[in-house]
Design goal:
Blueprint lengths: L1 E2 L6 E2 L3 E3 L9 H13 L4 E3 L15 H13 L6 E6 L1 E2 L2 E2 L3 H15 L4 E6 L8 H13 L3 E7 L3 H14 L4 E5 L10 H12 L2 E2 L17 H5 L4 H4 L5 H17 L3 H10 L8 E2 L7 H6 L7 H11 L6
Parallel strand pairs: 3-4, 3-12, 4-5, 5-8, 8-9, 9-10, 10-11
Antiparallel strand pairs: 1-2, 6-7
Helix pairs in contact: 2-3, 3-4, 5-6, 9-10, 9-12
């Protein structure tokens, strides 16, 4: 187990992403994934109020709804560290104080719980004074509806401003940072965001840690990409440089007798400030490779090899 920032949230160092629930995983399959995850010791689950709003027939919050149904059916709420986000649900766009309050209540209802363990500002809202936003988050913490706060997709400058406002006003400080980060997307995290995480004791939970499946090795040709549900995202990683990273991962995976995804997640987990990479599983069978990353310790030489081959990757 490891701890998130300065909080008392102890988590297994793999954060199960809920972005497949209600999309590529239906309710029963989602339940099976969640059951399998907790059966092997997993306790940290990430979702958002805006998942899966963009899918035809959905309205947003479907992932939260499935998670709430599962929590109610299975029990054990206090054994789970549950993270969700606000600012992108179609009915609750932005970070105005009243909107945050209403969005949080809607999330609590969908999740069928009385508290959220980790509540992220999903994206910055430059149209709302940051002090107003943080006051609304602080009110949720004081009311016991949210235990801890997190930041996702904010610039380094806005993170500094966030912490300064908390210091001045005595607001609850964030304990977590959720950036886009992986072997094929190392910037801007390493140069600008990791220093902020170090400075402010923010535990880092990188999203797209497997580059939407690209770092599992299943996209080796353009034909593989063209047939993917996540083609729009995967296209951004598909390049000779990106494929060279997958090739190196495959060599190291063979040496350890593990899956390519296992090595990619182990590399991310072993990076400074990272607490738990976020990775999702469409079906239970995909969990084994994810969970194996917790125990895989890459050697210094292997880390250097992956650092070198990924240094030339440029993504949009």
């Amino acid at each position: 187990m490891t701890r998130i920032g300065l909080s008392d949230l102890d988590v297994l160092p793999l954060n199960l992403g809920g972005n497949t629930f209600g999309w590529t995983s239906d309710r029963d399959t989602s339940f099976a994934v969640l059951d399998a995850f907790v059966s092997v010791g997993g306790n940290f689950i990430d979702t958002s109020d805006s998942y899966m709003a963009s899918i035809p027939g959905n309205s947003g919050g479907e992932s939260e709804t499935i998670l709430g149904q599962w929590l109610t059916a299975r029990g054990g709420r206090d054994d789970i560290v549950l993270a969700t986000k606000v600012s992108r649900h179609p009915d609750f766009l932005g970070l105005a104080p009243d909107n945050i309050a209403k969005a949080a209540e809607a999330s609590l209802q969908r999740l069928q719980t009385d508290h959220i363990d980790l509540y992220y500002a999903h994206y910055d809202d430059p149209d709302v004074p940051l002090e107003d936003t943080l006051g609304a988050f602080d009110s949720l913490v004081r009311a016991g509806k949210v235990r801890y706060l997190g930041i996702s997709n904010y610039s380094p400058e806005r993170i500094s401003e966030w912490l300064a406002i908390c210091e001045t006003n005595g607001f609850a400080k964030p304990v977590a940072l959720q950036p886009h980060y992986s072997l094929v997307a190392r910037e801007p995290f390493e140069s600008t965001l990791r220093p902020q995480a170090e400075k402010f004791d923010l535990g880092v939970m990188p999203y797209w840690a497997l580059a939407s499946g690209f770092l599992t090795g299943k996209y080796r040709t353009q034909a593989d990409v063209d047939g993917a549900a996540r083609k729009r995202i995967v296209d951004g990683y598909f390049s000779p440089e990106g494929l060279a990273v997958v090739d190196e991962l495959a060599v190291i995976a063979t040496a350890h007798d593990v899956e390519i995804a296992t090595v990619a997640l182990a590399w991310t987990r072993q990076q400074s400030t990272v607490v738990a990479p976020i990775a999702s599983a469409r079906v239970p069978g995909q969990l084994d490779a994810l969970m194996a990353s917790i125990d895989l310790e890459l050697s210094d030489a292997e880390l250097v090899r992956l650092d070198m081959v990924s240094a030339s990757v440029v993504t949009d």
